TrEMBL record:
The keyword Nucleotide-binding belongs to this UniProt entry's keyword annotation: yes
Protein name per Swiss-Prot or TrEMBL: MinD/ParA family protein
GO cellular component: cytoplasmic side of plasma membrane; cytosol
Pfam family, one: AAA_31
PANTHER family (UniProt xref): CELLULOSE BIOSYNTHESIS PROTEIN BCSQ-RELATED (PTHR43384:SF4), SEPTUM SITE-DETERMINING PROTEIN MIND HOMOLOG, CHLOROPLASTIC-RELATED (PTHR43384)
Amino acid sequence: MDQAQRLREMVSGKVKKRKKVPVLKKENNTANRPEIITITSGKGGVGKSNTCVNLAFAMASTSKRVLIIDVDIGLGNTDLLLGVYPSYSLLEYLKGKCSLEQAIMRVSEKVDIIAGGELAKDDFLLSSKERDVISTDITELKLYDYIIFDTGAGISSNISYFCQSADRVLVLTTPEPTAITDAYALMKSLYRKSKDLEIQIIVNKVISVQEGYETANKLITVSQKFLLAKPTYLGYIFEDSSVTKAVRKQVPYIKEYPASSSSKSVYQLAASITGSKVINSKTPLGFLSALFKR
Ligand SMILES: Nc1ncnc2c1ncn2[C@@H]1O[C@H](COP(=O)(O)OP(=O)(O)OP(=O)(O)O)[C@@H](O)[C@H]1O
Ligand SMILES: [Mg+2]
């Protein structure tokens, strides 16, 4: 059974009705605001957090100010990848134990992070009140060119919320068939809620440029055919032992191994993003970021 057939069967299956995810109120916005980027994937462990951290540093090297928010609440490990140990987290902020400003930790001159925090249980569904709390305090942050949400994997209502709220959604996959089918399932779910989403595909752990194109092309082709949606291909990151070495050292690979193949790929991705700012006025956080004016 080839990949396309598997995908065709997936879309021809019975579609379960999903609960509508409440999102924030849409308002007018302007182009002079931070872009909100959500990094997500269907399958876990495909490299979202590493990509998030390294993209942030690559974007910062072009003088952009970036805030990473780990919204894999309770399970996130973005802070560990950076070797930092924030005193507070998004979770503590949501529980009223600190302000959003206290939860923000400076990692480098142009990169800040809000960690996800730790939870005893493994699921944390944001209540509408907590979403309101996030939106209220986020409006006070006026400093950033980009805010990147690093999500967990799959199709939870939290993840859906952060995707629907973003200007640009980066869906990560690897060339493995299991990662591709899960990415497709995620995209199907996201597009069902909003056809206007700006979804861009990143293929991580490729062994050739061609493999990146072919993987993205499978997803683009089935999305166009069966979902009538048009995701685009942002680029690839090479499979590279520098990534794992840097993870062990708890430093971004673009800092530790700037000449590695993975670093070069990430700089290219960063250039594509910073060269084409996406302001999606149809997303709910659009109205928030209008208030971020610098
Ligand atoms: N380009 C790459 N080359 C080699 N190994 C990689 C690459 N990208 C990621 N990895 C490996 O994959 C592991 C998982 O990466 P990461 O934690 O970023 O995934 P994730 O998608 O954030 O996972 P989760 O779904 O649990 O949040 C890393 O520890 C790293 O060893
Ligand atoms: Mg992660």
